[in-house]
Design goal:
The chain is of the alpha/beta class. Helices cover 46% and strands 14% of the residues. The chain has a 7-stranded parallel sheet, sandwiched between helices. The mean pLDDT is 93.
Length: 256
């Protein structure tokens, strides 16, 4: 089988938790281009509109889900299976961030980032894994961060960093546990990515953007499509021997 065939996702059904976000939407578009049927999962009112705009020639399904509630996640996975017959790929991309010095860190911000970034990833991976174990396997990709590996600057968000490190460890542990079920579990760690949110930071605080660009060896922000390409690769048969890994897409930031 050729590489292009192994990279093809035709006939695959994918659920993207956090599919309304910049990186989530880019991943969805990449999957659609590769031939997959995509279901966007998120808790925003415009999710149906986002799904309908995903591709000119293809349509994406959608399901309302709150990743902080395990019941909502279980219902979303059931919706995918009931509507499309199976679940081959899960992307756990839902996440929030913030900035707050540790000495002033509130309990509320700690619980919020833990609930979305860590609890949400676990609930999504567990629900998808249960289905994949019954159906013969699949591929799970969680979105971690360079913050799982290195101390970034100048921003301060210790809770966010802790959640992303935990997500990477979840992937390593679960990959070993589920290997016998033919379920591959990997993470993709984005660096500073050119999303709407990061763009707003750059406009409001050009000194921070300057710091980031100086610290990135490629001296540019990563495009959401570059994250999506890495996720599509890990979801495909071209990555059939890869599990328990964290693929870093950061322009060299974490090794500089």
């Amino acid at each position: 089988m050729s590489l292009s065939n192994r990279m093809n996702l035709a006939g695959k059904v994918a659920l993207i938790a956090g599919g309304a976000g910049g990186i989530g939407a880019a991943i969805a578009n990449g999957f659609i281009e590769a031939g997959a049927k995509v279901v966007l999962g998120d808790n925003v009112e415009s999710l149906g509109d986002i799904a309908s705009q995903m591709s000119r020639n293809s349509s994406a399904d959608w399901v309302s889900m709150d990743v902080t509630k395990s019941g909502s996640v279980d219902e979303a996975v059931a919706h995918v299976v009931n509507g499309h017959g199976k679940l081959d790929i899960l992307v756990a991309a839902a996440g929030v961030t913030y900035e707050e010095p540790t000495l002033d860190h509130t309990d509320e911000n700690w619980r919020r980032v833990m609930a979305v970034n860590l609890d949400g990833a676990f609930y999504c991976m567990r629900a998808a894994g249960r289905q994949m174990a019954k159906s013969g396997g699949g591929s799970i990709i969680a979105i971690s961060s360079i913050c799982s590996r290195v101390r970034v600057r100048p921003e301060l968000h210790v809770g966010y960093d802790a959640t992303k490190a935990a997500v990477a460890l979840l992937c390593r542990n679960i990959a070993v546990e589920w290997a016998d079920h033919n379920i591959r579990v990997n993470a993709v760690a984005p660096g500073y990515c050119d999303t709407t949110l990061l763009g707003a930071v750059g406009r409001a605080r050009p000194d921070v953007l300057k710091q980031w660009l100086e610290d990135i060896p490629q001296h540019r922000l990563i495009a959401p499509r570059e994250i999506a390409d890495a996720v599509s690769f890990l979801a495909s048969d071209a990555a059939s021997g890869i599990t328990g890994q964290e693929l870093v897409v950061d322009g060299g930031y974490s090794v500089a």
